[in-house]
Specification:
Largest interface: A-B, 30 and 32 residues
Strand content of chain B: 25-35%
Radius of gyration of chain B: 16 Å
Largest sheet of chain A: 6 strands, antiparallel
Order of helices and strands of chain A: EEEEHEEHHEEEEEE
Shape of chain A: globular
Distance between the termini of chain A: 11 Å
Number of helices of chain A: 3
Number of strands of chain B: 11
Strand content of chain A: 25-35%
Oligomer: heterodimer
Number of strands of chain A: 12
Number of helices of chain B: 3
Shape of chain B: globular
Helix content of chain A: 10-25%
Helix content of chain B: 10-25%
Structural class of chain A: mainly beta
Amino acid sequence: MLLMKPLAAAAPQPETTVVVAHGTAAVVTARQGQLLTVTDVGGSRSAQLFGFTRADRREFLSVHHTRVFSNSYVLTLGMRLVTNRRRPLMVLGRDSARAHDLLTPASTTAGLAAAGRDGAGCEEAVAAALAAAGIAPPKRPDPINLFLNVAIRTDGRLTPHPSGPAPGRFVTFRVLIDTDFVVAAAATDFAIEEGTGPIEVRVHETP
Amino acid sequence: MADTHREPAGRFVCDQVVPGGFGAGFPAAAGQHVTIVDLHGEQAVDFVAVAAEDPGEVLSPVHTRRRNMSIFLRIGDRLWSNRSRPMFEVVADDVGVHDSNVPACDPTRYAVDFGVPGHRNCLDNLCEALSPLGLDPLDVPEPFNFFQNGPVTADGRMALADPTSRAGDRLVLRALLDVVCAVSPCPQDIIPGNGLVPSDVRVLVSADVPRKEDVPCC
C-alpha cells in the first residue's frame, strides 16, 4: 500500500507466494503499491522477469527503455523500470545481489541443447506459462535477467561470471502499475556454473 | 519504400539520400553490400532489418550482443537475427563507434521526456519505411544505432555524447540473408546525439564493397 492521500477506502490486495521450479515459469499479479520480491532460494542461479500491464497488453516492461530511461547499462538500487511507453512500472527498492543483466536475450530450448544443457528454455517456459494463464500478448519482450552477473567493461565487452552461492538473495520492487508478471527459472546458455534450485516469487504489502 | 534501380554505371542497385529526421526502406539480397554514409558528420542512424522471406525474423541487437559478447561492433563481427542466424557482417567502418543499446526514439520519448508531443521520431520513420510489409509498430525491431556514441563509464552508466563521425564517413555491411532494411537519420535535436542538428545520410546497395572514393558524397 502506498501512503496516498485518502480518496477512497482502498481494499486490501491479495498477497501471493509462488515457487517456480527449474525450467518453468509462473504468472503472478501485482497491483499498484504492492511489493514484488523475487528470491533465489539456493543463491546460485538466475531468474528472468517479464511484465505485461493489465490495462493494455501492448504496454509491457521494457528492458531496453529501462536502460535509456536511467542512462545505465546496469540495474541499480532506486532505478525505475519502465514500460515500452516510458512509464515507470516499478522501482528497485531492495537488492541483496547487486548484479543483474539488462543486455542479453532469453534462452531457448534449442540454444540450451546446443550448449549441452537439458530442460526448457526461457522462451518456451514463458510461452507455456502465458498460455496456461490465458494471456496472449502481441509481443514477447526481452527479459530482465535477475541475479545474472554479466559484467560490462568500458570497451563494451561482456563477461558472464558465476555467482554465489548466496542462499536467499533477493530483489524487491515497488510496483506502480497493475501488472501481470512472468518469472521464469530457466537455465542460461552461458558457460558458467549455475544452480537449478527454485525461485520464490512473493507479492506482498509490507517489506 | 524506394524502388531499387540499377544505376547506368551498374555500380549501385540502390542509391538514395535520406533527409535528416526522416526514414527510408530498401531491400538487399544476400551477398550485396549496404553502405550507410554520414554525409555531414555527427549523425546517428537507426537501422533495422527483417528477413525478406519472413518478417518475423528480425535483426536483433540483443542476440548480437550475446553472440559477440560485446555491445559494440568491430570489422568482421556478424549481426544476428532473433532466430540466431547471421544477417550481416561488418566489412568496412570509418568510425568504429556504434550503439546496440538504445531503443528507437518514439512519440513518448519526446512527449514524456521533453514535453514535446508531435516531434518526428525514429519509430514512426522506421514503421513508415517498412509499411509495405504491413508491420504493426510493435513489430518494428529494436534498432542498431550506427554512428551513435554511447560510451560506457567505469560504473556501467551510459554517457551522452555526440557521434564522432565526420562528413563522408561510412559503414559497410554485407547482407548474409535476403533482407528488407530501413534507416532513420535520428531526428533528436534536443539532447546530444546528432550535434543538435539532424542531417542527411546516403544509403547504397551494391554488389561489391564500394571504395571510399567511389561513394557519392552529397
